[in-house]
Design goal:
alpha/beta, single chain, Nucleotidyltransferase, domain 5, 24 strands, 7-stranded mixed sheet, 525 residues, Rossmann fold
Length: 525
């Protein structure tokens, strides 16, 4: 087409201002009024301004606020006023991403002819225009866009993608996208528990990542006032309203930990991250009074190491309230034979931490290797009393065994205690995976376990701690006066057993260091 001077000027104005282009030329389907011009609300203009001026953005939207339509309209702007750019629309299901592409195609078809680039390809799952720009719609996976040279990606309803799929996607695709100078990623979703979207949102809010956060709240939509809120809450309940409309990262219903406590949890980035080991705080030691060192407890949950359940441990500082999670380990491919080689060095590093190991199935093998092969003294033992209840034992006894069996009784006690510790602010969780699992650790019949499709291995290490905190022996070892006497008895033995290459805490403060796969701290040259 031969363009008039006015049309050329209008194209220039549209190119400079995506909001102007969308409001004047983009049309959408309204549920009641049919095909209408897309008149943006203030929050939609604010969102477009963020994604237009930033390469990486993450948007937390209240439900039914036009998040997908707004982003698709901006994608139409990108393909109309650029050359040789490929865009990807990805959703948790392929049919959803194709439905979004359908909205883009509808908006394109209703543009004035002089604004439409020519069409080369017009398929159900992709389009290509004469200016070299194209759009591909696919499910979010590690292979859906592998090998493509993408300029921008929309990750729609990212919170509803399975965590394993999200991790695989970012491992395979994100490095390629982020390595460009102008490439972009737009993440939009309503919250869906404390999962990968929650993690990325918190990191963005706290400036731990390059993503710019933008939050769209229910009350920003015209017509949604307090009366609307009360009516909606009456229909769907307060908890559902907070997650669907209030932007709250609440977990599943009927979780062990109350939703109010979950909503206050904020994970921290580990100061040391090595393989599957995360350390949030270094061990607290006294150079002149070793008996005043902080006391640590490691609770261990074991798996078979075949890629399903995880072998985990949590290291907790129990020297003062609140008890604090200071280190974690989580790996689903480590064998029971290898796991003790991780457990023992880390326990030694944390002031010869007391270790409680769950001994159902493969855990017994792990406990025996730690106690007898590694000759680690601070393995907590249990025996059964006349009521067949397990209790911690210390000192000589023919009946005691390393570790504790998880039974209905121990799990019930552990769940009850850890619930009260966390909700009363007496136990501080710092690990993301633990918070994530807490949000899906739900009641099933007369017990608590992971919601279908999720894991609970980090939570089970906390349940073990909950059971341990109820034992008389735990209360004794947590007492500093008793600990001082025990330390003097065992000091000589532990000093001879510690590998010479492990640095002391005072050295650790002065030098560069790293932790190897076994958890040992090594000096860097």
């Amino acid at each position: 087409m031969e363009l008039t001077h006015e049309q050329i000027m209008e194209i220039d104005r549209c190119m400079d201002d995506p909001t102007y282009f969308i409001e004047k030329y983009v049309k959408i389907i309204h549920v009641d009024r049919g095909l209408i011009p897309f008149k943006l609300y203030d929050y939609q203009r604010r969102y477009i301004d963020v994604i237009h001026n930033n390469r990486f953005s993450i948007a937390k939207w209240s439900r039914q606020t036009g998040k997908s339509t707004t982003t698709v309209a901006y994608f139409l702007y990108l393909i109309c006023f650029n050359k040789d750019k490929t865009l990807g629309i990805l959703a948790n299901k392929a049919n959803i991403s194709r439905e979004l592409l359908g909205r883009l195609k509808l908006a394109y078809e209703n543009l004035p002819l002089w604004l439409q680039p020519g069409v080369i390809e017009w398929n159900k799952g992709s389009i290509e225009l004469g200016n070299g720009c194209s759009v591909v719609a696919a499910a979010t996976s590690s292979s859906s866009i592998r090998g493509m040279s993408l300029f921008a990606i929309l990750l729609d309803e990212f919170a509803f993608l399975h965590p394993n799929m999200a991790d695989a996607f970012f491992e395979s695709t994100y490095p390629v996208i982020s390595s460009g100078q102008t490439t972009r990623i737009y993440i939009v979703s309503t919250p869906n528990g404390m999962n990968h979207f929650y993690r990325m949102w918190v990191e963005a809010e706290e400036n731990r990542s390059s993503f710019v956060p933008v939050s769209i709240d229910w009350w920003e939509v015209p017509g949604r006032d307090e009366a609307w809120r009360k009516e909606t809450v009456a229909n769907i309940g307060e908890e559902s309203f907070e997650q669907e409309y209030g932007g709250s990262f609440l977990g599943s219903s009927h979780t062990l930990i109350a939703g109010t406590a979950l909503s206050k949890m904020v994970f921290k980035e580990p100061i040391i991250k090595k393989e599957h080991l995360s350390i949030f705080e270094l061990p607290v030691r006294s150079d002149h009074h070793p008996d005043e060192d902080d006391l640590y407890v490691m609770t261990v949950d074991c798996s078979e190491g075949v890629g399903s359940d995880y072998s985990t441990f949590t290291v907790t500082n129990v020297s003062r309230y609140p008890f604090k999670q200071v280190a974690t380990y989580r790996h689903n491919l480590i064998s029971p034979l290898q796991f003790p080689d991780i457990i023992v060095p880390v326990a030694k590093q944390f002031n010869d931490a007391w270790i409680l190991i769950e001994i159902n199935s493969s855990g017994k093998q792990v406990a025996d290797i730690v106690r007898f092969d590694h000759e680690y003294e601070n393995v907590l033992m249990t025996s059964t009393n006349e009521k067949r209840r397990q209790q911690l034992m210390f000192g000589p006894s023919k009946e005691k065994i390393p570790g504790v069996r998880t039974t209905k009784s121990t799990k019930k006690i552990g769940c009850s205690n850890i619930k009260h510790l966390i909700e009363d602010g007496k136990y501080l969780i710092q690990d993301f995976h633990t918070i994530q699992e807490a949000s899906t650790f739900v009641r099933k019949k007369d017990s608590f376990e992971a919601e279908e499709g999720t894991n609970d291995d980090m939570m089970m290490s906390l349940v073990l701690f909950g059971w341990l905190s109820n034992q008389e022996f735990f209360k004794e070892i947590a007492n500093k006066d008793i600990r001082k006497s025990m330390f003097n008895d065992m000091r000589q033995r532990f000093e001879t057993e510690l590998p010479a290459d492990i640095m002391s805490y005072s050295e650790l403060e002065k030098k560069n260091y790293e932790i190897d796969a076994n958890g040992l701290v090594w000096t860097l040259a």
